[in-house]
Structure formats: structure tokens, C-alpha cells
Amino acid sequence: MYVVESKEGAIVCMLLSLFFLGTWPAVMTLLERRGRLPQHTYLDYSITNLLAAVIIALTFGEIGKSTTDSPNFFTQLSQDNWTSVMFAMAGGVVLSLGNLATQYAWAFVGLSVTEVITSSITVVIGTTMNYFLDDKINKAEILFPGVGCFLIAVCLGSAVHSSNAADNKEKLDSLSSDYTVGAKATAVLKDTVTNDDREKDLEDGAGSAENAKAGTAGFLIEVENRRAIKVFGKSTLIGLAITFFAGFCFSLFSPAFNLATNDQWHTLKEGVPHLSVYTAFFYFSVSCFVLAIILNITFLYYPVLNLPRSSLKAYLRDWNGRGWALLAGLLCGFGNGLQFMGGEAAGYAAADAVQALPLVSTFWGILLFGEYRKSSRRTYVLLGSMLFMFIVAVAVLMASSGHRK
């Protein structure tokens, strides 16, 4: 099998993982804002997420000749390593729960803030656990100040959300009571859409939401009318509660994977080699897939948060955005695999630097979804402070990289 051995190779894996893990949430959010049910999207995503793990196992996990100390993927499938397999599958379970929760949190809190809060909680709890599991190969005097920076980023992320929610409420309160959810905000868009644009929309069958300027009250209403998860009138505490639950789940998956591949608690029988990253990732992804299928099929018939009911037949017929959902699964799968490959070489605590993914997600959130457009100066100051603290935290965390012997 192929093994990443150098610190430089580990950093390359982390950077690629950072881009993939920061992009797939934006793809999922895009589909929800276009009205696709999250249950349908997540079922598609789960299929290719597992496919990515299988591809990695059959390629990197099968490169070279299998040896006693470094068995290839197929060799390890028949070995007596069930305790390590259980740790890997437990990691997949908590990751699946976290990903499922964030799918709903994005609608309530926004892509940028959700990713910052969940990633920061992941680092504060998960990185501390990985530091001790990795036998302290990372530099504590550098690592823990970086963890502290992530903790500050959590507080700033919550403040950004509260400030932005207040800005949006002020915009909506300025509207006439005639413009409510479910009604087109035509009058509101007079200053943002030209007559020519409106005539063209009627000819092409397009809605005014595509032309409303991001950040305006009309834009907010049109997004609410289109999206699958309706959030107007619901407490922002719901979104924050879901976000913190997701962050707690995310904080556990990397330590569980660490235990699966390095057997720090000595649960394997003598002479049985540790699970390779690729075998562990395969079992990790299988459990993630199984739980996602069970929960999302259940949510088709018993939806949460007042979503409409669906069915397996309706899901199979829903091809609107399916290609994007499948792409999101591949991005997440390869992103997680690269994170684990880098973590096995440089320490899983340092590999948590990929939790810088909110930097990528925030870019997509602003570019694609118009987040924070026409917000108050207070919101912009808080957003800038949050991102700055996040960049500092990631740089410090990468600087703490060690080398596993």
C-alpha cells in the first residue's frame, strides 16, 4: 500500500483536503436553496461518499506487495482486527450524524457561521484528544495556543450570526405587511431590477429571485420562497443548537479513527498488524453510509422541521440537482481520505488544520449566496475578526506538525 511518510507530503494532503471539505457544503447548500429536499440530496451524497472510500482502498490501499507489517487492503479484510474496526465504524457514525445535522444548520445559521462554529468545536475537543492519543508528537507550546484561537473563533462566529440575523430582521421589518413569505416581493425589487430584466424574466419563465440584489429584503424573501427548509419565524437558537450538536459529533470522529489505526489502547491481539488508513477509512465510510441511509429514508416518511413528506419513489424520480449531490459526496469522501492520510504521517492533531475549511466555505457563501451583503458595519467587523482569528489558528496548528515514527 502507499504510505505518506514526509511532513511535506502530509501538508499537500491537508491542503487538498481543505479545498474539498470546504467546497462540498457549498454544493449541498446550493441545492437546498433551490428547493431540493435535503433527504434526497443526502441519499445521493451518501452513495458517492462511500464510492470515494472504495476507490481509495482499491488504489492506494493495494499499491505494492502486501507484507506482514504492512498488509494491503484485501489482506486486512480477513484479519482478526474487529476491535479496531469498531473504532473506525464508531467514527463513521458520529461523522454521519454531524454531517446530517449541518445540512439543516446551514439553512438556519448560514454556511459560513455553521462551518466556523462546528470546525472550531472540532479542534478544541478533537485536537486535544488527538494530541494525547498521538503520544504528544505535536509541539504543545504551539498546538494549544492554536486551539485557543479556534475557541475565540467560535465566540466570534456566534456573534456574527446574531448580528447578521438582527440586520436581516431590520430589513424585513421595513417591508410592508403585504410582502410575506409565499408572496413575490415585486415592489421591493423596483430599485434592484430593471423593466427590461422583468420583461425578460417573463419571457424566459425565470423568477425575480435570480435578479434581486443580494442582501436586499426582496432577495431574502425570494430565497425563503424557493428553499426547501423554511426558516422565517423560527428561533435562531434552533440553528445554533443544531450547529453545536454537529460540532460535538465532529470532534469525536478523528480521535476514533486515530484509535482504529494506531491501537493506542492495545486492543488487538499480539501479532495482528494495525489497520491501515485505507482499510479503516473503508469501514469508517461503510458505517457512515448505513446510518445515513437509515435516517434519511426515515426522514422521507417522517420529516423534521416541517419539511414536506416524500417517498422512495419520489426520491428515485428526483433528478433535479442529482449530479451536484453526487459530486458533493465525492468531494467529501476524498477530502476525508486525504485528511486521514496526512494525519497518519504528521499526527492527527496537526491534520485537524483542515478544519480551516470555513475559509473556503465562507468564500463560496459570499460568492454564491450573497451572505453578509448590505449588512451593518458591526457585522463586517465581526466577520473580519472571525476570519482573521481563524487564519491565525490554522497557521499555528500547522506549525505544530510532528512526525510519526
Summarize the topology.
Elements: H1 7-33, H2 38-59, H3 73-77, H4 82-109, H5 111-133, H6 140-173, H7 195-204, H8 217-226, H9 236-262, H10 277-301, H11 312-317, H12 322-346, H13 348-351, H14 357-369, H15 377-399
Account of the protein in words:
The protein has 405 residues and is an all-alpha fold. It has two domains: 17-64 and 79-164 and 230-399, no CATH class; 182-227, no CATH class. 70% of the residues lie in helices and 0% in strands. The chain contains 15 helices and no strands. It has helices spanning 7-33, 38-59, 73-77, 82-109, 111-133, 140-173, 195-204, 217-226, 236-262, 277-301, 312-317, 322-346, 348-351, 357-369, 377-399. α4 runs antiparallel to α5 (111-133) and α5 runs antiparallel to α14. Residues 177-210 have low confidence and may be disordered. This is Ureide permease 2. InterPro entries: UPS_plant, Ureide_permease.
Short recap of the structure:
This is Ureide permease 2. It contains 15 helices and no strands. With 405 residues, it is mainly α.
Comma- or semicolon-separated keywords:
15 helices, 405 residues, 0% strand, mainly alpha, 2 domains, single chain, 70% helix
